[in-house]
Design a protein that fits this description.
Radius of gyration: 46 Å
Structural class: alpha+beta
Strand content: 35-45%
Oligomer: single chain
CATH architecture of the largest domain: Beta Barrel
Shape: elongated
Largest sheet: 6 strands, antiparallel, barrel
Helix content: 25-40%
Number of domains: 4
Length: 396
């Protein structure tokens, strides 16, 4: 083949390939009229719920502390230990308290001996005064000697009172040291389960400023509560004894139940939003729930049976009609009415309704002409657009 013919052939092949490549990017997506996305009006039960999150905690939790300072000598309870009221759960080294008690008891004995001695001096001074008085009547002693005897007796009486007070003070000190010795033994204040232990054997606790926490005891984990904060916009719907359902991350497939037991009046302000604390009582007989778990709560505030309901999206649907046409339709509605769109061949008609309770996915509708399984128009489903070429070839 001549050289120039090969060159022409190669050029034609290159041009053909460039043309095919360009044709792959030429063309527009084919426009197809999307079909209406239809749903149905259903007849059934519907409930309205207020959602919130909260934390599980025991109904009663007691922090057990120490009123005296010292070194932890023994621990008789640990995490998850079941304890009874009055049971000893820790022991602080009591040697120093026993020594102080012995010292206080010795002081009591010493003060009592001093009191008895003062009482003897009172009797002695009384006898001296009586003899001096008799001698004074016989003109055998002077007035000054009588006065001195009288003053000595009064001084002895006063000294006896001082010694009696010292006895009372020493007994009070002894009683205080007895109490401190008793405080060196830590007892469980309630029946329950130890959920936290904050000390170890050999650790020194200092109770000079405030009582250090040694244990945290939950009274009964079979009954627990959820503390959840509800926005002020919904708190007016919350009442005591309303049923509650909730889930926890540990058991995503399981639905737990409870009831509202208290709506506390103290407001909380978080990021400018006012919230109120609600307490939910929970039965935890199987002990599946644990303190500190996060609960996703749904409080049932209203429940109705045999109502017409539609998907929430049906009330938000607006067709792609001219603005003037839509404005004319809306002008015939009052503030409490909404529109359902009904299929009518290739077009749509409207049906005015009023709304009732609003659920998570469905809303109650009230109005004339509603029927079970009546077709309604929903917003179109979001589908991924597929590019369709009018012409061209694909080499890959």
């Amino acid at each position: 083949m001549p050289r120039h013919s090969k060159t022409i052939l190669i050029s034609l092949i290159v041009v053909l390939l460039l043309g095919v490549t360009m044709l792959q990017f030429i063309g527009t997506d084919s426009a197809e009229s999307p079909a209406l996305n239809l749903g149905k009006i259903k007849l059934g039960s519907l409930k309205s719920e207020v959602s919130a999150t909260g934390t599980l905690s025991p109904v009663i939790t007691v922090q057990v502390g120490s009123q005296v300072s010292g070194t932890i000598q023994h621990l008789y309870a640990d995490f998850n230990s079941e304890v009874k009221k009055g049971e000893i759960i820790a022991q602080i080294d009591s040697a120093i308290f026993k020594a102080k008690l012995a010292e206080a008891e010795a002081d009591v004995l010493s003060s009592k001996a001093a009191r008895d001695k003062a009482q003897v001096q009172v009797k002695q001074s009384k006898n001296t005064l009586d003899r001096t008085t008799g001698l004074f009547k016989k003109k055998l002693v002077s007035d000054s000697e009588l006065d001195e005897a009288r003053y000595n007796h009064q001084e002895a009486i006063a000294e006896h009172r001082v010694k009696e007070a010292a006895v009372v003070q020493a007994e009070a000190v002894r009683q205080r040291e007895q109490v401190n010795l008793a405080y060196s033994s830590i007892y469980a204040p309630i029946d329950g389960v130890v959920i936290s232990r904050d000390v170890d054997v050999g650790q020194t606790v200092a109770a000079s400023l405030q009582a250090p926490t040694l244990f945290t005891i939950a009274r009964d984990l079979a009954q627990m509560q959820i503390e959840t904060d509800v926005d002020e916009a919904f708190i007016g719907k919350i009442e005591e004894q309303q049923p509650v359902t909730f889930t926890v991350f540990a058991y995503p497939e399981r639905m737990f139940k409870g009831r509202v037991s208290q709506v506390r009046l103290q407001p909380k302000v978080e990021a400018g939003v006012v919230k109120y604390n609600c307490i939910i009582q929970v039965d935890n007989t199987d002990l599946a729930l644990k303190p500190g778990m996060t609960a996703t709560v749904a409080i049932e505030v209203e429940n109705k049976d045999s109502v017409f309901k539609v998907p929430n999206a049906a009330l938000r649907f607006v067709p792609d009609w001219p603005a003037e046409r839509l404005k004319k339709i809306r002008s015939k509605l009052n503030s409490s009415e909404a529109i359902l769109w009904l299929p009518d061949g290739e077009d749509m008609t409207t049906l005015k309704v009023s709304t009732g309770i609003v659920g998570e996915k469905e809303t109650e509708v009230i109005g004339d002409g509603l029927q079970q399984d009546m077709a309604i128009v929903l917003p179109p489903k979001r589908v991924e657009a597929k590019r369709k070429r009018r012409f061209g070839l694909s080499l890959f």
